[in-house]
Structure formats: C-alpha cells, structure tokens
Amino acid sequence: MRSIKNILVTGGAGYIGSHTYVELKEAGYTPIILDNFSNASRGVIDRLNTLFQDKPMVIEGDIRDTSLVEKTLVEHQCDAVIHFAGFKAVGESMAKPLKYFEVNVGGSERLLSAMKNVGLRKIIFSSSATVYGDPQELPIPEAHPLTSASVYGQTKLMVEEMLRAVYAADREWSICILRYFNPVGAHLSGLIGEDPTGVPNNLMPFISQTAIGRREKLSVFGNDYDTPDGTGVRDYIHVVDLAKGHVAALDLMATPHCTPINLGTGNGISVIEMINAFEAASGKKVPYEIVDRRPGDIAACYADATRARELMDWNAERSIHDMCIDTWRWQSQNPDGYN
After folding, report:
1. How far is CA 333 from CA 38, 188, 208, 220, 275, in A?
2. What is the pLDDT of residues 43-87, one digit of tens each?
3. How far is 78 from 31, CA to CA, in rounded Å?
C-alpha cells in the first residue's frame, strides 16, 4: 500500500503547479490545491475539472496564514507538501525586495511551522537553477557553489538554507529541493499552459505571443556571448517532464533526508535555436531584434541531471520540438490565455 496519498500543493493553480496537479492525479495521488490566486487564474481550476471530470479540491488562501494551513493539513489528512507558492519575476524582485522576502521566505517559514505543528515532515520545495549564479562549470552539478545576483534568487537560496537548518535540527524530515532550469511547453490537451500576467519575463511565452500577434517582435538580449551563435544558452525542460519529476520525488519521502536535485535535460539551447525551432513547429514567423544585454544575464546554464536519474529513475523525455509544438497548441487555442 502506498503510504503517501494526499498531497497539499501550494501555488497549485500556477503554471508548474497545475501541470503537477495533472501528473499527481494520473499517478493515483489526491492533490489539494492551496492558492491565493495573486499570480494565477481561477480559469485553471475549470480546465482541470474538464480534464478529469472531477472538480479539484481547492483551498483559497495564503501560505502565510498558519492556522489555515494547519487546518487544511489536518482536515485533508495530508501526507506530504509540494511547495510552489511564491513570486518569481527577477526584475520585480529587484524593484520590490520586501514583497519577495515576505512571501517567498516568510511564507515558507510559516508553512514549515504549520507542518511542524501538525507533525508533518515531508516536503518537496520548488527551487531554481538561479542559486548557482554565473556557473563555474558546465554542466552544473548539485555540489556547485551557491550564490545569486537577484533578490528572487536570494529568496530561493534562503529557503534552501532554512530547509537544511530544519533538517539539521530534526532528522525526521524528508526534504527534496528540486532546482529547476527553464520550464517551457504545455499540456498535450492544450487546456493548460503558461499565461504570464503583463509582459512575459521568460523567452518562450514571449516567442509564442509574438507568433500569435500579441507582441510586435521579440527582443534578443545580446548576441556577443561566448556561445556558438552568440546568444544566451539555457537548459529548457518541458513542464510535463518537470511535473513528473515531482511525482518521482515523492518516492524519496519514505526515508529522512535533505537532498538537492537538478531537474533539467542536460542540454543547452540558444535563443536563436529556440526561435528557429518554434518557427519550424508552428509555421509562423517570429520577428526579432538584437538589443543590448540585460544586467546580470549569463552566457550559458545547463544541468548535470545525473542525480535525478540515479535517485529517482527520472529523465527528461520531451524534445525541443515537443516543447514548441505543445506551446503553440496552447497559445493558438488560447490566444488571450485563460481570459
């Protein structure tokens, strides 16, 4: 019998959270979404209902509300937590640092306190490859030195340090720290996908919105990096592969530990390569212009994903073509996102 069944998914209405909800359901788990919808659309819930003909269990609330979190964990007999909730825009984090420290760090502390208060010590944390800073080696292993140039990255690093301290003080905790590289793509159905509010911060939604006509052109920030075509190289991972990584990580909750694990493909794709791949997949032209580099951007970043294979028997399976096809299906079926 599976000892873990009911999973609290904080931020479960978001881009990665909603795709993880799907994979949890398909794997036989019972996910419970906790979201305040400050950075997610309520339309996601209707789409999940359509996918499964089963209305999702949704608690509308904030991870900073310790009493609500405790009540939710107890009433729904949660066996583990997958923690996505938090803000994630690098530029905004630099302009509004207190917002990011309050929600990302303070919210995580209150979530962990609520878990401790009810005796639940199993958590999977949504971290980021941004904690590696400008990498000293490629591909990047989990043992790489940790640093960050942005407030967003600092908050991820601070929560990681908090989790390591919690485990050092109480060795009954089971903690997986999943460091994402660059999630892209959408569910095969086209019902759920990435729908950023305002101007996208990430490459893929900007490409797809340009292809659909919502944006005039794409800005490529620099073409003079030390990379094959001069544009930045990143490790793009399909969001469904990423979601499956969280399901695989639940198998590591059986024993106490605190382990960081990279989730990436191990391959670097340049901005120009991604544009070309998207044009081939969609049949649409993506106009772009080369502009100055952005402060803090790095030349290349991609994962050493060996640990994920060894510990979780997990591999990223979907190609760059899959990422582009699935993104275009989502964007073309939902030209205005969830609205």
Report:
1. 24, 12, 12, 26, 20
2. 999 999 999 999 999 999 999 999 999 999 999 999 999 999 999
3. 9
> How many whole angstroms separate alpha carbon 294 and alpha carbon 282?
28
The partner residues of 183 in beta bridges, in order of sequence, read 237
pLDDT at 3: 83
Give the DSSP H/E element, type plus range, for residue 179.
strand 174-180
**For residues 181 and 268, what is the distance between their CA atoms, to the nearest angstrom?**
10
Architecture field, domain 6-185+236-266+304-317? 3-Layer(aba) Sandwich (3.40)
Closest CA to 258 of 197, 169, 144: 169
Sign of CA dihedral 57, 315, 147, 260: positive
Which pLDDT score is estimated for 1?
37
| pLDDT reported for residue 200 | 85
Residue 154 has pLDDT above 80, yes or no: yes
> Mind listing the pLDDT tens digit for each residue in 253-262?
999 999 999 9
Round to whole Å and give the CA distance between 82 and 91: 25
Write the CB contacts of 89 (distance below 8 Å, at least 6 apart in sequence): 152, 201
Active site residues: 152
Those residues with Cβ within 8 angstroms of residue 76's Cβ, 6 or more apart along the chain or in another chain? 6, 8, 32, 57
Residue for token pair 């052109």: 217
Please tell me whether the peptide bond between 139 and the residue prior to it is cis, using omega within 30 degrees of 0: yes
What are the sequence ranges of the domains in the chain? 6-185+236-266+304-317
